Amino acid sequence: MRTIRLGTSTLEVPVIAVGCMRMKSLEKKEAERFIRTALEEGANFFDHADIYGGGQCEEIFADAIGMNDSVREKLILQSKCGIRKEQGSFDFSKEYILDSVDGILKRLQTDYLDVLVLHRPDTLVEPEEVAEAFELLESSGKVRHFGVSNQNPMQIQLLKKSVKQPIVVNQLQLSITNSTMISSGINVNMENDAAVNRDGYVLDFCRLHDITIQPWSPFQYGWFQGTFLGNEKFPELNQKIDEIAAKYGVSNTTIAIAWLLRHPARMQPVTGTMSVERLRDCCKAADVHLTRQEWYAIYRAAGNVLP
Q: I need a labelling partner for 74 at 20 to 30 A (CA). Which of 63, 244, 281, 300 fits?
């Protein structure tokens, strides 16, 4: 598996991150097979969150892999906190961050996280509290690296007013059909909808500051409306993807991930599938390098018009 440097850290990670949001749907043997397959493919970076399955996804993962010190050395574990579904709120308070991490570590049966990510922006955030929490987590050895998700450049800058640790990742929704962060940069100074800046040019900001973008829902269109692959709503896109997939002798799944990996931002897509076969197809994308013409052909086939 090809690797990249995670943000400004010294951590080398596979270009594919294995998302564990749906692991609650698997029986223990199925989960074990899935995790083992990921490791066989060199995809040892696993993305969790304290809310996934109400915490059960982390428990199932640790149980399935038979977590111990020897196993832990082979894994790169990332988890997220900040969404409080039971309260209908977001929470970046010092107390909640610290409590959440303790719960995550207990469920994952480990002493530390490689990466902790703040899950969606909390508009009531007090950067000083986040800074205090991060300091305690780093000094205690519970968390080694820190990141955010779904944050725009100014929100990251606000955090950095107090937070000393580098922000190494930013998880953002991005797929072939959900690519406004790319389109706004292509349609600069135009009067069309694609030119509307919706995220503060977060793509360019992350590239400038060496923050690794982790695209989530790389196969989804809209707001969890379904996958665009094989969907009759996207005939031209699927025809183009299938044509390019045939050229490389891979699946359409592989090409959808390869499209993200072709971008020079050095992204790390987060898969969401619990299918062993689809996971293998995702991992194959690490070895497919689309041409500039193929990348733009797929972009246009999704309905995007170049100015």
A: 281
